[in-house]
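Notes from the 1:1 (GR / supervisor)

We went over the backlog. Supervisor wanted to see one worked example end to end before approving the batch request, so GR pasted a single chain during the call. The sequence is below; no edits were made to it. Supervisor asked that the structure be written out right there so they could see what the output format looks like.
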Amino acid sequence: MTNNESSKPTNFIHQIIEEDLDKGTHGGQVVTRFPPEPNGYLHIGHAKSICLNFGTALKYGGACHLRFDDTNPEKESQEYIDSIISDVRWLGFEWAGDIRYSSDYFDQLYQWALHLIREGKAYVDSLSPHEIREYRGTLTEPGRNSPYRERSVEENLELFEKMRQGDFDEGECALRAKIDMAAPNMNLRDPVIYRIRKAHHHQSGDKWCIYPSYDFTHGQSDAIEGVTHSICTLEFEDHRPLYEWFIENLPVPAQPRQYEFARLNLNYTVTSKRKLKLLVDEAKVDGWNDPRMPTISGLRRRGYTPASIRHFCDMIGVTRSNGIVDMGMLEAAIREDLDANAPRAMCVLQPLKLTITNLPDGEQEWFELPAHPKDESMGLRKVPFTRNLLIDREDFAEVPPRKWKRLSPGEAVRLRGAYVIRCDEVIKDASGEVVEIKASYDPDTKGANPIDYKPKGVIHWVSADNSQPCEVRVYDRLFTEPNPDGDKERDFHDFINPESLVVYPDARAEIGLKNASIESRYQFERQGYFCVDPDTTEARMVFNRTVGLRDSWAKIKGQ
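Structure output shown during the call:
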């Protein structure tokens, strides 16, 4: 019954599937589908759906289809299609058979629309879109029948053919299902199932100037493909009666069922495609794959791994209860992954010159440091120790605060993996800014602290003579408020974090990172986890911060 090591259901959908398998429903088959609309890039909420649909098919030895529900050509593009295909594969999943498109079924859907007309269950309405909305009623008042609702079958067939031929302008008329204008569920109040759109379609070209609605297309596409369990989020629960009405009133080849689960709501972000597109169009971010975006491609560029996202989706589970997931859970998932799998390195973000005065110029000693302190299989890395070094500017304080555990005048610290040094002299420029530290090292402190030494702490460093110049982009959460959509008085734009990106253009990393490949991930010691950005060229290396070593936001919130 299952390809999984455990056949136990892990959520309510799996319970339903196992009951269906026990009863022989759907002939013992499990067929799911992931059906995105290609009108934007996928985000972290889609990742939950991807993991659920593909993971369910894998667990029960079934099949999962990738189908683009492409019924709105004006908002769709090949760019979005390509990005979705890439995201699904990057997450580690492969679909059954060829990629599918709802537009593949436009001929069949058109024939089924004719079937509804012939059965007296659909009619061409000549009300304007505005009038259709007015006639629809409200949540507390029933709708009114259109004056065109009782057109004859012959007249409706003739008008629908003229719609198909392009004889009408957009909005001049539409095909509606004839259900019940007084239905409590407004989705059943004679929904529009075909509208005129004189737009070029990325798959079907200019063959059609009428396009089926999403609601008319979705369930019938499931039926054509033999989908057994149509899994979607809770906002489609009110659409299920319409889904079932079409299935019951059309000669479809299968009887799929729709099941709803709670969508993923993540704090400190927005997941509305419309709002994400606004951020892109208004240049608030650098494209859909900006590392601050909650898109899958943005998370990938930031340094998240497929395994961490799949683990996060497992952590939050699948329920029917809406709630908000804390961003800290997503960040914890990637920290756990990278803590175990990312090799260590040192990188100085704001270089401050450190001269070792008792080391001859030109002399170089190589230290062998573990690539990972807990995983010997990663081997060793080599770091050169020279007279001219660089430390992070924030690791020095001329007047140290209380409990300072870094470098200050007259005090000693250990350079990570190397020697203990003592600050002997501070050099400043004309404006009074510290530009150089002169220090001496103790050659007897290699690998251990003598009894009479009490260094303040340990700091990271690189050689100024033999290190890799790079740009480091420190990313943080895009919004300052947990719920940027929740303030009725202010727009979500008002909560964009002005410090969501801080760039260090003159950073220096260990020389061993010189040839690191795109998306390689590292823990920069004492800094956080970073990855190599696709902007990297032979002349310019770029690192993105994935996440800090600790949850700094939780600490701030606690304070």
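Supervisor's comment: Residues 44-59 form the longest helix (16 residues).
Batch request approved.
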